[in-house]
Amino acid sequence: MAQPVFPPSFPPRPRTTSPTPAAPPAAPAPVAAPAPAGSPTSTSHGAPNLEAIVKIAHEEGHSDVHLGVGEVPRYRARGEMQSTEWPATDLSTFQGWLHEILSPQQIDAFFREKEFDGSHAFPFVCIRINLLDSLRGPAMVLRLIPQTILTMEQLKLPEVLTELAGRPKGLILVTGPTGSGKSTTLAAMIDWINRNETRHILTIEDPVEFVH
């Protein structure tokens, strides 16, 4: 039988095809386990976080912590600098340390003014913070502040300081190099006045280190 011939304007019958089966749905991507709570004990650079660094200084009796970009973290013990085996600090690690002890506003102020003085309290010790801009980049020096105020007797200070602390008027200058005990001596004298005199004590200091 001859096939029918359709005119050009007549639409041909569409070809029928069998439906293609749909692909199975993809398996869901694995979900990573949540990170444990709390601050990490180390940074991505290999050095501990700042709290761990300060805790070592506190446990080993060091007076200061010296940190800076491009420098190996160091401790000061009895006036002598001691280097650590941690790698030289990069900028990312240093900024992470800043976020442990400063607010975003304080960090912005430091990078704008290139200096900052403040304080911070860890659960085990208080620190005095000095930030500066060095030739290699930002740096910081942390001074550990004892939480216990020693008396003049415990410090074995000369008795003349007790006599001076008891006078109603005068000017006392306590001078000396870093780590010689200036703040500790003043704290002991103020503590003596606070315990033995009926006076109103006004201190002008920033940051406040000792609370009586």
TrEMBL record:
Domain Bacterial type II secretion system protein E: 125-210
Gene Ontology molecular function, alphabetical: ATP hydrolysis activity
Region described as Disordered: 1-47
InterPro entries, per database record: P-loop_NTPase, T2SS/T4SS_dom, T4SS_GSP_E_ATPase
Protein name per its UniProtKB record: Homologous to N-terminus of PilT2 protein
Biased composition range(s): Pro residues: 1-14, 21-33
Entry superkingdom: Bacteria
Protein family membership: Belongs to the GSP E family.
